[in-house]
Amino acid sequence: MSVAVGIALTLSYDLLRVFRRVVSHNSILIAMEDVCFWLIWTYVTLECIHVYGDGVLHWYMAVGILFGVVLFHYTISCTLLKSVNNILYKVKKSAKKHKKLLKNSDNKGKM
């Protein structure tokens, strides 16, 4: 279960990183998002420790979480983020092209 928590933690942070690439953020908003993210994940982690470890942090639980983070980060996360970056780049490029075409078509109609 600890490994699953580590994987979910890393996946959710990757999704937050993707969201930040799509929606422009200033440093204050990024800091607020990070604080909220870590507060939520602190609660989730402590709740898992409470439920599965009877409230006692066993060394193997911490190692399991760390293993899940590292496992996901170095396998799926790298591929996932590269794929998302490629998709976002293509969408942005396509949007610029269509915007340029629309702007040119508007200018041709005016005299």
Entry keywords:
single chain, 111 residues, mainly alpha, 88% helix, membrane, transmembrane helix, Spore cortex biosynthesis protein YabQ, YabQ
Tell me what you see in this structure.
The mean pLDDT is 86. Helix content is 88%, strand content 0%. It is mostly helical. Helix 1 runs antiparallel to helix 2 and helix 1 (2-22) runs parallel beside helix 3. The protein is elongated. The chain has 3 helices and no strands. It holds the Pfam family Spore_YabQ. InterPro entries: YabQ. It comes from Coprococcus hominis.
How many E-type strands? 0
Average pLDDT number: 86
Largest sheet: none
The secondary structure category is mainly alpha
Along the chain, the helix and strand elements come as HHH
DSSP strand (E) fraction?
under 5%
What percent of residues adopt helix (DSSP H or I)? Answer: over 70%
Number of helices: 3
Summed up:
Helix content is 88%, strand content 0%. The chain is mainly α and 111 residues long. Keywords: Membrane, Transmembrane, Transmembrane helix.
What is the topology?
Elements: H1 2-22, H2 27-52, H3 59-109
Helix pairs in contact: 1-2, 1-3
